[in-house]
């Protein structure tokens, strides 16, 4: 097993698809993956989400993701900094999902998040141009990775240097093999 930080900076994002919208969310690494305080997160009507839009916004979310594990010097992570990030991240998370709730007529922010398919995007930006796009398995109101023996055909790779169109097309392939939590 590789020690945290041993492979350099890691950037994370999520691509979420529902029947109403597509969302791209930048995630910060701070001992786990959390809604980014400064990263790019957005959503669009599903009918308007082209591969080009998905590719452009997913790459932007990854590029603006922060690896606070590296920024803060590794283990142990300073609890005061974690707490400060959490205080900023929580309201931004709620504001983002509140906008999705309002825009698409969900009864609350939780409803805006459930019944979705999700792709986990992970990029070791100092090691490779390849981004790992892993389809998820719906688990009620959340998502998880597949067991390693179930990964065949559910993990894709795309170069961050690919065109937005090509990057988006590969991300859509990953979305298409998700097990959404609305089945």
Descriptors:
183 residues; alpha+beta; seven-stranded antiparallel sheet; two-stranded antiparallel sheet; 5 helices; 26% strand; globular
Largest sheet: 7 strands, antiparallel
Secondary-structure content class? alpha+beta
Q: What is the helix fraction of residues, given as a range?
A: 25-40%
Rg measurement, Å: 16 Å
Query: What is the strand tally?
Result: 9
Oligomer: single chain
Walk me through the structure.
With 183 residues, the protein is α+β, with helices and mostly antiparallel strands. The protein is 34% helix and 26% strand. It has 5 helices and 9 strands, in the order ββββααααβββββα. The strands form 2 sheets. Strands 1, 2, 3, 4, 5, 6 and 9 form a 7-stranded antiparallel sheet that branches. A hairpin with a 3-residue loop joins β1 and β2 (21-29). α1 (51-64) packs across α5 (164-176). It is globular and about 40 Å long. The termini are far apart. 33% of the residues are buried.
Compact summary:
The chain is of the alpha+beta class and 183 residues long. The chain has helices spanning 51-64, 68-71, 79-104, 109-113, 164-176, and strands at 11-17, 21-29, 33-35, 42-45, 117-123, 130-135, 137-139, 142-144, 155-159.
Q: Topology of this structure?
A:
Blueprint: E1 11-17, E2 21-29, E3 33-35, E4 42-45, H1 51-64, H2 68-71, H3 79-104, H4 109-113, E5 117-123, E6 130-135, E7 137-139, E8 142-144, E9 155-159, H5 164-176
Antiparallel strand pairs: 1-2, 1-5, 2-3, 2-4, 5-6, 6-9, 7-8
Helix pairs in contact: 1-5
